[in-house]
Amino acid sequence: MAAIKTETITVRIEPAVKEGLKVVAEQERRSLANMIEVMIRDYCDRHAVEINESLSTTPNKQVG
């Protein structure tokens, strides 16, 4: 099975928001990156935004 290629993003958030994220991630026993991904996926599900999983497994495919 092919490894899933990941992407890097950088965001700026207020320190209090980051601290809250750390607390939630610890409660869920997740890394910050994984907790953010879970939250984004949940938001997309609730707002009927489809995440195209096939883009994750296609190497060197550009979107746009």
Quick recap:
The chain has helices spanning 15-28, 32-46, 54-57. The protein is an all-alpha fold.
Descriptors:
mainly alpha; 64 residues; 3 helices
Strand content: under 5%
Which H/E pattern describes the elements? HHH
Radius of gyration, in Å, reads 14 Å
Structural class, from secondary structure content?
mainly alpha
- What percent of residues adopt helix (DSSP H or I)? 40-55%
Q: Tell me the distance between the termini.
A: 26 Å
Instruction: Count up the helices.
Output: 3
Arithmetic mean pLDDT:
87
* Biggest beta-sheet profile: none
Tell the overall outline. globular
State the total count of DSSP E strands. 0
Low-confidence segments:
none
Written overview of the protein:
This protein has a domain at 15-52. It has 3 helices and no strands. It has helices at 15-28, 32-46, 54-57. The longest helix has 15 residues, at 32-46. It is globular, with a radius of gyration of 14 Å. The relative contact order is 0.13.
SSE arrangement:
Elements: H1 15-28, H2 32-46, H3 54-57
Helix pairs in contact: 1-2
